[in-house]
Write the structure tokens for this entry.
Amino acid sequence: MLELHAITAGYDRRAPVVRDANLTVAPGEAVGLLGPSGCGKSTLARVAALLHRPDSGRVVLDGTPVHRYRHRAPRARRTAIGVVFQQPRLSADPRLRLADLIAEPLRATGRRASAPARVAELADTVGLTPDLLTRRPHEVSDGQLQRACVARALVLRPRWLICDEMTAMLDASTTAALVRVVEDYRTATGAGLLAVGHDQTLIDRWCDRTVHWDTVTPAAAKTPA
Amino acid sequence: MTERPSTPTSGTTTEPPPEPPATATTPAAGTERVPAPGAAESGAVTGPGPVPVSETGEAGAVTGHLPAPAAAAGPAGRAPVLSVRELSVRFLLPGGRRIAAVTDAHFDVAPGECLALIGESGCGKSVLASALLGLLPANAQTAGSAHLGDLDLLTAGERTLARTVRGRRIGLIPQSPAAHLTPVRTIRSQMEETVAQLTGERNRSTLRTAAEQAAGRAGFPLDHLDRHPHELSGGLAQRAATALALIGDAPLLLADEPTTGLDRDLVDRTVDELRRHVDADRALLIITHDLAAAERVADRVAVMYAGRIVEITGADAFFGAPGPRHPYSRGLLEALPDRSFTPIPGLPPELGSLPDGCAFAPRCDRATGICATLPPLTDSVACHHPAPARTPEDLRA
Ligand code: SF4
């Protein structure tokens, strides 16, 4: 289970963007979190991905409470979660070739040796041709870069996936292609998914269950727009 | 790559602009939609299929194009505000490589009409917008023409574009309003400055009134005028940017991905506001990958693939029962989550090494041998085997 209990989080303790949020994802389940622009759902997604320490509340991952976040989180926990963000250009190191971008988590966890085979396999899965793997982010389109970012999120075979507006910048076909990649991976591995978005049609089609932001944070009567 | 004679009939190749745009390397040109040499827009790749790579690339246009004036003309039959003919853009890269970002674009936009240019990232649609605004980087070459009234935007110098076109004859609604607004100044002061720039007006109270009128026209709440951009929600920032774009009362509005990152309510509100300005007899060219937004706002739809417009038709027909006729357009529409949610297989081709024939062939389930020759744009679609429209007489084209 991925459990978020009474999470309050933000960038200024006096004005948290998430107040008292509760959300649970069961193993293998795909939960879509739907909310308007700027409601704080991306911040909650970062908490769930262990990338942002909440001001208060509890995160429980596979039965064990989380105490440390970001680079302080134990490796086994960080690698259990794969994350994809909305803007690939903000989340990709511009100096890395796509192959190295995809392999980055392998190198960071001392699994360099397995990188070439794993990268080739994932490139095929996400539809990147070998020629593209030698390019750097500024030499590929947004859609191609996001394909690489999805591959990077899957490279450590995570049990959980957090997709924060993964397709907001993408055309319809690339959207359908990347959702299919995620779903094929989940079918094969039983991974759970938290997909955050604002497109109800997409989230309903993609996920087992859709939750609305105002039911996740009922206490927060008003959130900053 | 040879000179680009892809238009055998009109064979003239516009030389690089005599005065390279001074803005070519400024941030104005550098929003992420406008590629630096070899950048994102050019980054599409060879599909999995056997794509013949020829030295002449797209220049091997065997059949040439047969522009279909009926399809390209506005439905209202009025003189178009913008008339684009065989517009092509090439990026010259170090090492002699050429990127065929846009090839033979041909369309009109009439007053009171919205044309939506749709396609995936890297298809050339934002390069086309940059070409119209004179904001291409210095390594770009253009051919063809783009007439705004009697001014050809492609050959007009940067002085003309800066002084009489951008903001005055073309209102630009940017992709990222946050980047377009000056962070340290209030919306009011930016509006007043823009009014002053465009009208030469100096009287403070006149400026104040004009700025408030501009805000009102874009639906921007007057009690937020004294805020700074970071104090605005995404939707209000977008309206502020729209208000700035409208100040010059330009007959043509150009919106480049105006809804990216907005939630659906905000998308609807943004495009509905744009539609109001169309209904007030402006022409709107909207560039978007958001098909739902296009359906909501557009009168006609032009689909771009690998730098070419492959279909241009009425929005009702495109989104309605007849449906699109080009296999790529159909695939794009079918990929929507409220349709079959099935991706088009493969990736778009490399714009630096396009095949001689139809660039969609490696991904197309209707392809045959003849698809190795370039399909002309006839009867609103550039395809050798277009799907039959169920009720062709409904097609407004
Ligand atoms: S049928 Fe032929 S011409 Fe038409 S899109 Fe397919 S490959 Fe291109």
